Amino acid sequence: MSAGGAGRGGRPLRDEPADWGAALGTLTGRVMGPVLMLGLLLAVVFVVWLFAAHGIWAATLGPDPQGSLSAFLHEAFTTNEGWRMILAGLATGFVFAAVVLCISLVSFPMLIDRPVGVPVALATSIAVARRNPGPTALWGLIVALSLLLGMIPFFAGLIVVLPILGHATWHLYRRAVAWPDQETRPGR
């Protein structure tokens, strides 16, 4: 099965097979290094996020852990310190989530599609987010809600949600990033 014909906006689609072999074939040596580097960057952001969350918890509820989950929930929702932790945690989490959204908006598909490095992919992703703040925020909300819904039945829904989000991200990238050779190159 191949994906030929015209796409949205009259752009021709690539005449490539649409199967597992073709999908996994995109993960060549040229692609794996930059994708792994971007993944490592996101892992570092996640670890910094964890340290920030721990710092907020220690600064508001104290460094000693509560005796049980119910004691923690009681302290979090019934004390001023708990509400400060919740509000500071939400604000900090929002900032980290916005950073991750902006740097990964189109960078992963770009690394797979074009022979660019991580700095170019990051700069392009940030530029797309900066030029389109409304749609970027809406996309972030769609991703967050989709992941939340996918996690409800013991994370099994992610089997459906993740490929849909990946496919949608590819189309977002194709519409948001124009290349000089896009109109003249066959398969574009």
UniProtKB/TrEMBL annotation:
Pfam families: DUF2189 (PF09955). The chain crosses the membrane at residues 31-52, 86-112, 138-165. InterPro entries: DUF2189. Keywords: Membrane, Transmembrane, Transmembrane helix. This is DUF2189 domain-containing protein. The lineage of its organism: Bacteria, Pseudomonadati, Pseudomonadota, Alphaproteobacteria, Rhodobacterales.
